Amino acid sequence: MKIINLKTNHIENPLGFDLSKPSLSFVTCDTNAKKQVAAQIIVALDKEFNDIVFDSGKSEEIDSLAFKLPIDLRPRIRYYWKVTVWANNGDIATSESAWFETAKIDESWSSKWITPELDSVIHPVLNKEFNIEKSIKCARAYVCGLGLYEININGQKCGEEYLAPNFNAYDKWLQYQTYDITNTLEQGKNTIDVLLGNGMYKGRFGLSRTENLYGDKFALLCEIVIDFEDGTSLVINSDETWKSRKSKILSSGIYDGEVYDSTFNEQTSYEVREIDLGTDKLKARLSLPVKMKERLKPIEIITTPAGETVLDLGQNMVGWIEFKTNAPKGSEITLQYGEILQEGNFYRDNLQSAKCEFKYISDGEEAVVRPHFTYYGFRYVKVSGYHGKVNSDNFTGCVLYSDMELTGHIETSNPLVNRLFLNALWGQKGNFLDVPTDCPQRDERLGWTGDAQVFSGTASFNMDTFAFFNKYMYDIAREQEVREGLVPNIVPVAGTGDGCSSGWSDVATIIPWNVYVQYGDKRILEQQFDSMKAWVDFIKKQDDNSGSRRLWITSFQLGDWLALDGENPNSFAGGTETGFIASAYYYYSSRIVAKAAKILEKEELFKEYEALASEIREAIRKEYFTSTGRLALKNQTAYIIALYMDLAPEGKVERVINDLRERFKADKNHLKTGFIGTPYLCKALSENRCNDLAYTLLLNKDYPSWLYAVTMGATTIWERWNSVLPDGKISGTDMNSLNHYSYGSIVEWMYRYMAGINPVESKPGFRHIKLTPMPDYRLKYAKASYNSSVGLYESQWEISEEGNLSFRFLIPFNASATLILPNAKLENVKVNSKLLKETDLNSSKSNENVIVELVSGSYEFYYVPKVAYIKYYSTECSYEELVKNEESKKRLVEVLPIMLPDHMIGKVGDKSLRELSHMPFFPVSSDVLDELDKKLGEIKVNID
Asked: Which residues fall in a coiled-coil region (predicted)?
């Protein structure tokens, strides 16, 4: 038995984070035991655990997902901790030690904010020299630089992160970082150099694309604390004794890139002065560091028809190119970044006003070169001015994203579906640089709240997002505080105004709830409850001011953004009535607040918001449903929301399901949903016995569909369903990002429904799951793994040539699952080579399924389903489907008295033969159809 994944506040060995409410978690694995019966956590001030500050003793009350540490933490202290677990079979294990180190907490700052006595457009280096004459025990640097900064000591970069101090609402709070510089300092003379760049703080940024959104001056606050072996200390403060000089960076910007002049070597020293930014907004970091997580080599060096030299990284990625050069002095090497080629040539018009360039002026020395204060979203890089032959050995794509552990993986028998999963994952990597952005390449790159909300489920399966979203939710709350509960569409606001909208602003309730269910740590609800409640109260105030109808129909709404069913082709809002969407989210968020209040034992608030939610749902039913259950709106998104959010009147769900199927039939079984409908689309279908339709939508390859982009060579998710047209031409330059993760929300459905790894709200953090794999004959197999807070889950299914089913599951220690085997007979099911009914497993029948209660362990199930997972052609298939297959077409020609002319196939080809037989132009008798069914029934539907 082993204990792994020791984390504090969901971060492994956090240094200098805000740990005001420390929560410890761990995972037990490699054991045949099923449950934790007791545990002990010990915290000490030394690695040897001689100086113990907390000992829980052997306790049955320790929650491995979130143990609240009941001690007051001291500033600038490293705490060591370990855990011992007792299992139900007698196994005992003790972990290796982990640690967390506090920042300054409530210590006052002796350092001062300083700014260089230079023109504000000149990128400075602020520096300080000092001597060390004693043996060092440990040393830390506490730093915040504005806009962005890199700190170097004795010529060595401190830390592995980039783009510090990250991006947040700078006007409301500022983060400082902590660096362990013990091994960087030397005996004798030491030099600190802090390089500053514009970033989002003072560079061109935001929807206005203007400068100085948060400030117009570079600034630095730096406090270095050195503890010596003799017990004394030395503090180096940023103050007016520091100096500054001009750096080699001539310009930098998030959108436009960077110019680095290596020939510039002016050593003139300039004064610095104090600047009054105060320290009241300072807070120990919440942001995970942005790190270089992967390195990619170009897969091809292209010479375009226009004569350009272009690197193809093979993957739309985010970060920058690092390259080697020994070009002659004064040579200018320029890299331009783009997402796509057009007619074989380099292209970047869809990046709008963003230049996305890096220019390097060589000093004649051999060098490895990279930017410092920008990043790019790209697959292709145009190289100009490079000395010598451009080859892949000298160029590396450096992939940047927030330091999150990868936790999920999906694989199926369909390579296109596998690529779709990777596209969503790469979209997450590229847009999770501290803030969940809409896109990483054009002149935007902002924290659009709707994008983050709809993708949060997928994101939290793919990666451990607790700390990432915890920081973003803090930003949400801070922006709300000055807006009477309103949640802006973009957070941090970055000068974009106070607009709000349903689906976007509901980020304030939905992400905290999703994070709680995913990780089982109610600390996120405790932190965000006031924010969650304030958002619902804001809507209710609007509702009350317009007559208390319990509908939200008064404000501008973004609607089902970029849906394809709008009457006006120039409208981005889609065709679903925005008042219906807004009112549905009003209900949904009210329900979440009620549930959160219940968990936090706020009983009166639970009753209040539960009652409010009931009133809203009743109002929606009166406004939008007839007495027979017919929904007044006919859009895919309207039906999907009605089902997913449980809005249909009692006893009328079947009507909505049937009408939804008719809607899709009319739409030729293709989606038309936008940002609001798409995340819930397949989930609502699978939850309501339309799993076949969910798979159809997943596996469609023509526009509009998820796989259309994959067939067009996409390596990330597109902003639009047709961002690139079938001829390879980009569909437009207005709002056309090729790395826009929102539609990647389908991956959550793949984890939860295709593979069946479904968390249960009443037992959050995957302590117990509803294991509901839903196979489909169009895939031969599917498998998924998820490294949850409680441990590793695995789910795999496979369909044999005969259409029989086999499953493999892994349930982690201290967890359990309710397995639902589809289309099964209890007496036929085998588990681990034994008949299920002859084992000790608790099993039962339910409709067409078999239910089995599982505890920790590995399982293999096999059975012959009631109906084989093979599809044969029949007269219930569409005419179009039948004539595409040569064998079935041959049978049609043999039996049918008449075939549809080609020009009719596009009009009615989606109808089945039996439907067509009722039409005057296709007179086919039922006897003929019955004969045809016998012949078609011999032909198995091919799996692509």
From this structure: none
C-alpha–C-alpha distance, residues 462 and 459, integer Å? 5
Q: Which of 171-175, 193-197, 860-864, 929-933 has the lowest mean pLDDT?
A: 929-933
Closest CA to 510 of 486, 538, 535: 535
Asked whether the beta carbons of 593 and 609 are under 8 A apart, the reply is yes
Q: What are phi and psi of 544, to 5 degrees?
A: -60, -35
Angle, helices 578-599/636-644, rounded to nearest 10 degrees: 20
Q: Which domains does the chain have, with CATH numbers?
A: 2-101 (2.60.40.10), 114-284 (2.60.120.260), 293-402 (2.60.120.260), 405-721+732-751 (1.50.10.10), 755-863 (2.60.420.10), 879-937 (no CATH)
pLDDT at position 730 is 96
Catalytic site residues?
444, 719
**Average pLDDT score, the chain:** 97
Q: Is the peptide bond before 704 cis (omega within 30 degrees of 0)?
A: yes
To 10 degrees, the CA torsion angle through 34, 35, 37, 41? 120
CA dihedral 176, 180, 186, 190 (to 10 degrees): -10
Cα–Cα distance for residue pair 433/376, rounded to 1 Å? 11
pTM above 0.85, yes or no: yes
Between CA 283 and CA 478 the distance in angstroms is 13
- Buried-state track 622-639, b at ≥16 Cβ within 10 A, e below 16: ebbbeeebebebebbbbb
Residues 318-345: what's their mean pLDDT? 98
CB 74 within 8 Å of CB 35: no
Summarised one tens digit per residue, pLDDT across range 575-629 is: 999 999 999 999 999 999 999 999 999 999 999 999 999 999 999 999 999 999 9
The answer to whether 400 and 290 are in contact (CB under 8 A) is: yes
Q: How confident is the model at residue 554 (pLDDT cuts 50, 70, 90)?
A: confident
φ/ψ (deg, to 5) at 683: -60, -50
